[in-house]
């Protein structure tokens, strides 16, 4: 048993040794590999050492760089401290700004409230705009309709245009005809010029004749004025002398005859004076001024009134408009008219004379109305004739020139004169002045 | 011939008018020294001592001349022109007498320097009054510079 154990042990140990040999061979192989690995690593370490030298140099450089950087950081730090202070200041400012923002917020709220109102307004306006849009749609339709109408009209215009072109052609034809007619007219004109020259010569001749006649008439009226008055003056004067110086030799009948002569010669003198006045007005030119009628009528009444001292005369001057005319001539008109009114109311207990004016169309109509003897309208056409009288001189004295003179003056003013009357009830004379 | 001072020179061609004028002046004691001439030519001869009045003392001037405007030969206006254009006579007052109211005559007379102008009225009463008033004014009231 011991040997067996020993053999077993020897076997085991041999086997162990074999195994270990194997293991050592494996280990030797591995060592060779490891040796190779070590060689390789040694080479790598050599490389690495070289790299480390380089890295070391790099580190030194980096250390230097870090020193520089630290200095820079100190500066940066200071800078940050300064920035902190600045930020504090800024924070204080921000608080103020914050308050401001709060205030602004409130304002914005107000504004928002206002905007709400404005919004409502806009909403209303939108509605209006919608309505308007609806209306525009209608208007648009209307326009469309009108456009169609215009198109129709355009079509019609094209037709009308064609018609015009046709008419133009007709007119051209007519123009050609007119040119021919014009030439004929020129011929006729030439003839007329010839005739005119003849007529002008005749006019010159006639004018000369008329001027001669006019001069004759002037010298005639001068003679009437001068030469007819002289013998009348002699008749009147010597009869007067007879009455004054030889009265005791005359009986009543002879004296009354002489009075008749005196009276009639005076009357003829008046007739001549009135006739001359009448013809003088015919020659006179109207020098137009603005005539203050109220003042004019008042002055006429003041001048005439003393001629009738014992009469009861009431004059009423109504509203009267100013007129444009020759002051002297217009005054003569009213002297004659108002003088007539005074005269022809002579047989009335109370004479009432009314003067005034009224407007009719563009004319100013003046009137003089009295309650006197009037006249018979049957003889109206004789009223304004020269030397025509509707009353005998026994009833009312006068020469029959007054109304004729009035008519002449008023005609010269482009106006009219007319009258209305009733016997014994009075007369009313009207004078119209144009454009006043 | 004509030694007394002439007061009125009446130049009037119409005998009747002259007679009536002289009578009116006489009635008012104004016709004591009155000369009546019958036309303008005679008036000029008298005033300037020519023709039939050659040698008359022309210093013996009338105090007033009554001059009818319308006369044969030389008219009143022509006489007036000569009188008013001559230094010897232009101070003698001249009264123009006429029957007419012709405006051109009145205007012409005033241009020539007439002193008065009278239209002879038909009525003798008025005529007499006018003549007498003018005579009185120029003989008695007015002081003509010598």
Structural class of chain B: alpha/beta
Q: State the end-to-end distance of chain A.
A: 189 Å
Order of helices and strands of chain B: EHEHEHEHEH
Q: Rg of chain B from C-alpha positions? A: 14 Å
What's the mean pLDDT score of chain B? Answer: 88
Give me the oligomer status.
heterodimer
**Percentage of residues in strands of chain B:** 15-25%
Side-by-side strand order of the widest sheet of chain A: 2-4-5-7-6
Written description of the protein model:
The complex is a heterodimer of chains A (436) and B (146). Chain A has helices spanning 2-245, 252-283, 293-304, 327-344, 402-412; strands at residues 289-291, 313-317, 323-325, 351-360, 363-370, 416-422, 426-433. With 436 residues, chain A is an alpha+beta fold. In chain A, the strands form 2 sheets. A 5-stranded mixed beta sheet of chain A has the order 2-4-5-7-6, covered by helices on one side. In chain A, strands 1-3 form a two-stranded antiparallel ribbon. In chain A, a hairpin with a 3-residue loop joins strand 6 (416-422) and strand 7. The longest helix of chain A is centred in the first third of the chain and has 244 residues, at 2-245. The relative contact order of chain A is 0.04. The mean pLDDT of chain A is 90. By secondary structure, chain B is of the alpha/beta class. Chain B has 5 helices and 5 strands. Chain B has helices at residues 15-27, 40-48, 76-84, 103-112, 124-141, and strands at 8-11, 34-37, 64-68, 94-98, 116-119. In chain B, strand 3, helix 3 and strand 4 form a beta-alpha-beta unit. The longest helix of chain B is centred in the last third of the chain and has 18 residues, at 124-141. The relative contact order of chain B is 0.18.
